[in-house]
Amino acid sequence: MTSSETAERPVVEMTGISIEFPGVKALDQVDLRLFPGEVHALMGENGAGKSTLIKALTGVYGIDAGEILVDGRSHRFSGPGESQDAGIATVYQEVNLCENLTVAENIMLGNEPRRLGAIDWRATRREAARHLATMGLDIDPASSLGAHSIALQQLVAISRAMVVEAKVLILDEPTSSLDAGEVAQLFAVMRRLRDEGVAILFVSHFIEQVYEISDRMTVLRNGRLVGEYATATTDRVELVSTMIGRSMEVLEDLHVSTDRTVEIERGSTPYLQAVGLGRKGSVQPFDLDVYSGEVVGLAGLLGSGRTEVARLLAGADRADSGTTRIKDAPAPLRNPRAAISRGIAFSSEDRKAEGVVGDLTVRENIVLGLQAGRGWMRRLPGRQVDEIVDKYVAALNIRPADPDALLRNLSGGNQQKVLLARWLATAPELLILDEPTRGIDVGAKAEIQKLVAELAGEGMAVVFISAELEEVLRLSHRIAVMRDRAKVAEIVNGEDVGVDEVVGLIASGGDH
Amino acid sequence: MREITRHALFWPVAALIALLVANTVYRPDFLAVTVLDGHLFGAPIDILRNAAPLMLVALGMTLVIATRGIDLSVGAVVAISGALSLSFIATSPDPGSVSTVLLAIAIALGVSLVLGVWNGFLVSVVGIQPIIATLILMTAGRGIAMLITEGQITTVTSAPFKTLGSGFWLGLPVATLVAGGVFLLVALLTRRTALGMLVESVGINPAASRLAGVKARTIVWTVFALSGLFSGLAGLILASNVMAADANNAGLFIELDAILAVVIGGTSLQGGKFSLSGTLVGVLIITTLTLTVTIVGISPLVTPLFKALVVIAVTLLQSPRIRETFAARARQRAARPEEVAA
């Protein structure tokens, strides 16, 4: 596909793009070229300017300097509508569809065929079915969108984008909540569209996926262009180094930071004991012990019940069977407050919906958990708040290091760090982290992994959930394997345990 | 200068000043305050006194709206509170005694608080949407007030009770002092404790707040209870002003004025960040507007239209989208000379 570079003219050519927000230069002289029939990866850490660049191309932000050529014609977009008219379609990270409408209605929304001024519903369904078929998808257009998995919704969103016969398709983190099979399905659709001559701009934090699907890539760092590379000839380590702008030391450090050989004294009483804990329609009854100083990993596919286990342990959902004991004393976890007061902190996988309080400042977000525990009457003294905030902003390297910044203005990785700070400030004895590293960049990921290892080393009990098995293996002392909403196996981690073993357990359901 | 225009309260305050200036142009002695019988006297004092009931209602409304709620029942609570206090005084053997009046006030406030607690119960425990939950009391409340007054407009003579709405203390209207006192109390309550932050947190992201351990239910319940209590106090002032309990018209449409004042003051109906001083400015704008209409002699027929025009102007100036457009224009204008230079 790289041969197209020489033969054809780029369908999109952005040159010298600069965008400034009050006090911040978000983009500084960035170039991007997209050719017809290629998958182009846009790479960079959180806050590197990827989203801003996409928003410049889609007309969400106006540009302060530079030029955008689409099909050789200069455009100055002043709204998403104009960009769409120019043939640029976007599918954002969070699926922007209406769950309560049917698949057909979602695909054709705004482009419904009409007859005598009224919408021709039959033709609408027929058209939608045709679009789905051209992408090789077998979905009933009359079914309700909400009945389908996130992955299928994502594909429906792409179908919707292609209704307007887009020449350029922008996919912003489409794979962050998909499992391996679903990613393969998405890639099949992407390849099909690429072969039809569509230029696809693909943003992802998963380096393996970028290598699998992309032809070329553009790397950004701190709002500046690092370079444009052909994927086939670029080394992975080199790529990561260019993205984070420093050597791989941070990442390599990590391999030694968790000493898996540490013997946890499992003879003693566990910090938390769950016996027969379960909830109908959520997760089948399971037993789980978590000892102080130990990281227990939960491995399993998306929807295997790993999140549900975490929610029961944190009191976010109420169990309808089983008991929980903390330090060998009965401790029912009826709601998050009850769990928090017992020293359990829970960071949800859904950062945006269940973690971030966007319009409050970094400072307020950090002390929120601690203050909630004290009740509204006993306000934390200002000096103590400052101490706590300064401590965690420095310790977790939160950027910008401005406690008065609104949390919604921070990048995903930094928001995650603020949420971690919120929980650490409550001085928990058990920390439950559900996908703490999802959707954040390599550098922040390494920092968070390192922190988890350190906390366990200091005696904290940790339950760690991640879709990436390597990460679970690297950090955990013990791994509970989940499958089909039930705990199917539990293994002690060690030198001899690898991804293959865990995958085998997930696949076999622990029967061997 | 830019700092000042960016301040959230810039446009509301500008609108208020513009209104005052317009009035002064029309009647040069508008802002003059004289001393009469040891009381301050003049249009500004009228505004401050007339603003008191709306201020009280709007304070409660601000907190309710900050938690993503709305309280439509405030007008009904005003009517009930007024009807209760006046009926109690009218039927008591000694309407003029201070103890009777104090008891009447206590009963009215107690019942108002209970009504607020009822609203809070429906919203936070039963889980009914606030607009529907308070609609119940908005409709039923007038009926309750009618039952209390037995369908009559009860007129009462009681000097101590009259003081609340028409009296002066230290030269200032008692009603203003009461509203001002409550304003300070709420300001202290929300900003000196953590209540303000927790209210905002619940309003911005209820799910995240719950997981962070915030007692969202208690907080929502509390703000509705406060809204009921403050509406009851407003009802007392309004009743004391006219010394007649009118179940049908007391506090009619005050919920709309209160919501308007909150919005003009910059608190979003989507909940979250709230501004008490913004609400104060909003209340003053609305009260001044009402007085302006009388002073300028605008026909009562077009009064609502005139009010609407001012409100449109203020809300437009505050709209983030409009501001963004202006800011973008300014940025482009600033950027252009650079391009030429390059």
UniProtKB/TrEMBL annotation, chain A:
Alphabetically ordered keywords of this record: ATP-binding, Nucleotide-binding, Repeat, Transport
Domain of life: Bacteria
Keyword check for Nucleotide-binding: yes
InterPro entries assigned: AAA+_ATPase (IPR003593), ABC_carbohydrate_import_ATPase (IPR050107), ABC_transporter-like_ATP-bd (IPR003439), ABC_transporter-like_CS (IPR017871), P-loop_NTPase (IPR027417)
Keyword Transport: yes
Location of the ABC transporter domain: 12-247, 259-509
Record GO terms (molecular function): ATP binding
Name recorded for this polypeptide: Monosaccharide ABC transporter ATP-binding protein (CUT2 family)
UniProtKB/TrEMBL annotation, chain B:
Topological category with respect to the lipid bilayer: Multi-pass membrane protein
InterPro entries from the UniProt entry: ABC_transp_permease
Keywords, sorted A to Z: Cell membrane, Membrane, Transmembrane, Transmembrane helix
Record's subcellular location: Cell membrane
Pfam families per record: BPD_transp_2
Cross-referenced PANTHER family: ABC TRANSPORTER PERMEASE PROTEIN YPHD-RELATED-RELATED (PTHR32196), GALACTOFURANOSE TRANSPORTER PERMEASE PROTEIN YTFT (PTHR32196:SF19)
Name the record gives this protein: Monosaccharide ABC transporter membrane protein (CUT2 family)
Lineage: Bacteria, Bacillati, Actinomycetota, Actinomycetes, Micrococcales
